Amino acid sequence: MTGLSVARVDVRIDGTLLLDGVDCTAPAGSVSALIGPNGAGKSTLLRAIAAAQKTSAGAIGFDGEDLLTLPRRRRAQIVSLVEQDASTELALTVRQVVALGRTPYQSLWGEDSGLDRDIVAQALAAAQMDAFAGRDFTTLSGGERQRVLLAKALAQQPRLLLLDEPTNHLDISAQLATLRLLSSLARGGVSVLAALHDLGLAAAASDHLIVLHHGRVILAGPTAQILTPQLILDVYGVHAIVIPHPRTGRPVIAFSPLD
């Protein structure tokens, strides 16, 4: 397995170049964090990989398959994207929303099979939303909706899981539970690529970093090697100290005082 490969990808929207010759990889069976300031192109890159955003140039492959030319159903059996603040106003229960993740495996008029129902139940439990299965999705809080959409992605059984700010709206306990779930998925062979605004969470949860700035990848590699005070200063314009966690050895970031 080779994982994700993005080669010289450009994205233009209304004449504006949002991604400029992006080259990066996300190793198979790892959690890769996509970081960078607001407007760096993180969401655009995730959408381009999922073929939800048209590219102007370049190639995107996963395990030797060209994601941009695959039939839609086949691509949906490989890649799942959880977008930031994605929602629906349809009158669906949480279970029904999660069951939509099974669509790529069903015929046009097919009904849920016993296997489909089992996979949906497992996805709800993994996202800790099984107690909400009968609730109307539109009545949920932002954090609860975020976890339901993660469960929908899990029901899709992707080999490549793309997430845009998966900890958005979540309290610290739910954030850590989500990051533990992503690590568990990676250990099971899923390639995870998550755009994370919080550098502390990126440092704690990722094996691999991709740093975007002004639509370009400026650095990528193992998290402990890439996440340095100089990088934080160059990209975010702030001073920080990076030290190893006393238990895990992963990087911990202490930002300079505001004064």
Helical fraction equals 25-40%
Global morphology: globular
Read across the widest sheet, the strand sequence of neighbours is 6-7-8-3-9-10
Estimate the strand proportion. Answer: 25-35%
Largest sheet: 6 strands, mixed
Radius of gyration: 18 Å
CATH architecture tag of the largest domain: 3-Layer(aba) Sandwich
Output the structural class. alpha/beta
The N- to C-terminal Cα distance equals 49 Å
Q: How many structural domains does the protein architecture include?
A: 2
Overview of this protein structure:
The model has no long low-confidence stretch (mean pLDDT 93). Strands 6-7-8-3-9-10 form a six-stranded mixed sheet, with helices on both faces. A four-stranded antiparallel sheet has the order 2-1-4-5, with helices on one face. Strands 11-12 form a two-stranded antiparallel sheet. With 259 residues, the protein is of the alpha/beta class. The chain is 31% helix and 27% strand. It has two domains: 1-78 and 158-223, 3-Layer(aba) Sandwich (Rossmann fold); 86-157, no CATH class.
Q: How would you summarize what this structure contains?
A:
With 259 residues, the protein is of the alpha/beta class. The chain folds into two domains: 1-78 and 158-223, Rossmann fold; 86-157, no CATH class.
Feature tags:
Rossmann fold, alpha/beta, six-stranded mixed β-sheet, 259 residues, single chain, 31% helix, 12 strands, 27% strand
Q: Mind sketching the topology for me?
A:
Layout: E1 4-13, E2 16-26, E3 31-35, H1 42-49, E4 57-62, E5 65-66, H2 72-76, E6 79-82, H3 94-99, H4 114-126, H5 142-155, E7 160-164, H6 172-187, E8 191-195, H7 199-205, E9 208-213, E10 216-222, H8 223-226, H9 229-236, E11 240-244, E12 251-255
Parallel strand pairs: 3-8, 3-9, 6-7, 7-8
Antiparallel strand pairs: 1-2, 1-4, 4-5, 9-10, 11-12
Helix pairs in contact: 4-5
